[in-house]
Amino acid sequence: MCRYINHHHHPEQVLASKQSKRRHKVTVLLTECGDKDIMINLWHMAQCDRIGQMNPLQRDAYRELEELIDLTNDIVAHE
User: Fold this and answer.
1) Residue 72's domain spans which residues?
2) Distance between CA atoms of 45 and 79, rounded to whole angstroms?
3) Is 24's pLDDT higher than 70?
4) Which has more pLDDT, 47 or 4?
5) pTM of whole model > 0.85?
6) Domain count, the chain
7) Is the backbone of residue 60 left (phi > 0), alpha (psi -120 to 50) or beta?
8) Cα(16)–Cα(57) distance, rounded to whole angstroms?
9) Fewest CB within a 10 Å sphere: which of 22, 33, 55, 71?
10) Which is higher by pLDDT, 5 or 19?
């Protein structure tokens, strides 16, 4: 639980970065978290948080996190 609390702002920080920097940021975060499943859970928790705050008139902001899930899986597959 402490890992999730320590890293709960990282999804927003990664998404706020330039597209060209995201792979590096996810790789660094994956190293810090130490486990792919923890990272995927972190992305899912961020999605749930966004869904809970979502205004139906806004775009589906939670879907941006699907990119991070795919990127995490890609990084682990290529290691």
Assistant:
1) 2-9+20-77
2) 25
3) yes
4) 47
5) no
6) 1
7) beta
8) 21
9) 55
10) 19
